[in-house]
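The freezer alarm interrupted the setup, so I double-checked each line after restarting. Inputs confirmed:
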Amino acid sequence: MAQLPWRRLRNPYRPIEILSDDQVEAIRDASLTILEEIGMDFLHPEALTILRAAGADVESGSQRVRFDRALIEDALVRAPSSFTLHARNPQHDLIIGGDHLCFTLVASPPNVTDIERGRRPGNFRDYCDLLRLGQSFNIVHMFGGYPVEPIDLPPESRHLDAIHAFVTLTDKVFHGYSLGRERIRDAIEMTRIARGASAEQLLQEPSLFSIVNTSSPLRLDGPMIEGIIELARHNQPVVITPFTLSGAMSPVTLAGALAQQNAEALAGLAFAQLVNPGAPVVYGGFTSNVDMKSGAPAFGTPEYVKATLAGGQLARRQGLPYRSSNANACNIVDAQAAYESQMSLWAAVMGHANIVMHAAGWLEGGLTASFEKLVIDVELLQMQAELLAPVEVNEATLGLAAIREVAPGGHFFGAAHTLERFETAFYAPMVSDWRNYESWLEAGAPDATQRANRIYKEVLAGYQPPPLDPARRDELDAFVAQRKAAGGVRAA
Amino acid sequence: MAQLPWRRLRNPYRPIEILSDDQVEAIRDASLTILEEIGMDFLHPEALTILRAAGADVESGSQRVRFDRALIEDALVRAPSSFTLHARNPQHDLIIGGDHLCFTLVASPPNVTDIERGRRPGNFRDYCDLLRLGQSFNIVHMFGGYPVEPIDLPPESRHLDAIHAFVTLTDKVFHGYSLGRERIRDAIEMTRIARGASAEQLLQEPSLFSIVNTSSPLRLDGPMIEGIIELARHNQPVVITPFTLSGAMSPVTLAGALAQQNAEALAGLAFAQLVNPGAPVVYGGFTSNVDMKSGAPAFGTPEYVKATLAGGQLARRQGLPYRSSNANACNIVDAQAAYESQMSLWAAVMGHANIVMHAAGWLEGGLTASFEKLVIDVELLQMQAELLAPVEVNEATLGLAAIREVAPGGHFFGAAHTLERFETAFYAPMVSDWRNYESWLEAGAPDATQRANRIYKEVLAGYQPPPLDPARRDELDAFVAQRKAAGGVRAA
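Predicted 3D structure, all chains:
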């Protein structure tokens, strides 16, 4: 399967900015007023202790915390504007921040689908196949979580098998869920083993990241808080992403939803900085709107695009890396799935997101991972990568000699200038079918989704696991066995 | 059918610029060198006379014309940076240039398709139905040509029936083909009658436009030249669009293709200015790449996007309105059609095109007009329109009172702030289906293309012809009858 080579992407273009500087300040100011006057609930006693010690106003007998704006601002001063995220294969190390752009595989759907087998509950076999695809496609820079929830694995040890698979089937950066202290500690330890690093080295080298969603409006749950605390203490990056669906979990107005998003993100990020000043963090944006007829979440809408572009402005205002998503709300891999994804993706890329979550494979508002959508998304991501490669303008590319040679009325197919370059001049698509109608009809008239189906199976068939030091593998196996023998993570 | 109201669109955001100022100058400079040293063929004696009189270097015994760069620059100084294009319904007048954005219906495919009837040669019945849809959808601002070629009409009088249908079935701005002097004169006269205007008034009020493609590389055909001359003399806008497919009709390098595009466009536009200084003109960009394996044209590719964005920079460098397209090379209305169209459309909108040709209904690289694609494109265009509506940031939209009222852990569905706004807060989609999977399955699991099929039939069924002054209608009928009696346009 021809594909683009692995490379780190950088965005050389100016971001699309839809808010004026004044509007950014007004939204930021409102968000700080929210934190000062309304406050946010932190559902964990340790968080309340940390916040009280830092000078936040913890309402007596409750979990409501109010923040002086100076407290937020001072805490965030030390957050790095960019950092390196280390993979077990150093070739796959990533820079998060600045003009860098990283794409993740789909994360967290409960279901999985492909054409032949239809929609089914998540399971470990599909989980592993999706990991193999994420490893195989160079444009997928990292794993943003479980590409599908392997619900056939017991909950107490699921994270052990899932991370074991990340380490053995892939060599890219992966994600650990902040579902309580034990799980995230296991994830950090397995990451350390995978990298063959000491605990001290891991402290210096962020290698595991975690998405923490707030429970909007204005609430951070206990297991998530434990994740933030553990990750920040280990100097591993946390992405705080408010789930501010406008009209449901945040105001129906975009400005209001963004003000609330910014309040929740800054509160969570400031909290991580209070735990460990200077720990790597990322500003997450996930504001979209609901369908006001049904309350169903929508993605890739004009409002979603605006929120994504504005979110980038708010993150940059704070000097933080930015996370967005390639989202859609479609039930099937059709024109809607593609046009909604393109809305989301253009907004993420042109809004200068540094991490684009769910970049490949997300369907149905995140309820399903699709094998065919994954392949189609890889095509979209590769096109964005090509778009970000700057245009070369010089004597050779201006091609006046070729234009002179061909002369008015001629054609360039046979020109030396063409022949020297034609093999690499243009992006060669993976899914797109440019045959003429008759040839395409004769070939069975396959649509893009059917072609994507063929491609994913071809890529899976050609998958080779990346090499892993046997000593690390043994240590990893032993760790998993020992943790399973101890009963894994007990239910709360 | 719920849709956005008619409105003129303006783009409040800064364009995406992928070339540095130096690169723009280098490409422009190369284009002027092409015109100085290589020259361009003008295949019409009248053009050669006009150009020679203006001081261009017409090669003896040939049609090759070379231009001193000062001649090009001086000629273009008088071209307006924007102008009003008058429709027969003044509500549908358009401004072309500046930050204005206009969408046209698909133009010129030889075939037409829909789900039930399949792909078939263009015909007058489908032609009229496509006009009815273009009239019905408010987001379609104008007609860019015949939405499908009505090949069942005899060529000598086809333009008479086709324009008669524009005038009677629609009241928006339309296009006349520059296929020789007689046809474009007929189109101008029918436009005059439709508007109930005098010849003098029409001279002051541009009301008919025409796309003129160069025959790349570096050639302008006779019938097109006659169109330019007639339109410029009547002060009606000409859009000069080089058809510079990179690797076939222009260099395989983007910089070279753009240099050639700019050369051809500037030569054609300067020629129009020499015919009538100050006549309204538009800079057209249509540079894309071919599939180097087959030579087939590709659209919506990364190269296409770059050419579109760069084309906008070149047009603005010259102070001219800019025309681009919503193009794709797909054979069917599937995910590919949607993702390629989104690439083209985002580039056109963010590259600040003033006219987006083929904005609704183009399929198969322009070989087919699709009823379903038309509807899906309308959805894409409406989403762009919503995206261009600036975010409102003020006390009411920041919604602090609502956030206070809902409080941490609540929800906004029932908040007064939500209830006051929910009916108009978000874009209400036409095609997109946001039902949950189970409801969607129960409804027969229709894909976006099937939903679009239903919608186009519904809109056609509800079509009402716009009112037309009976006197104008009579005059128009009489003109067509008289021209047909005279044999129409005789074959060359």
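Quick read of the result. The CA atoms of residues 14 and 25 of chain B lie 20 Å apart.
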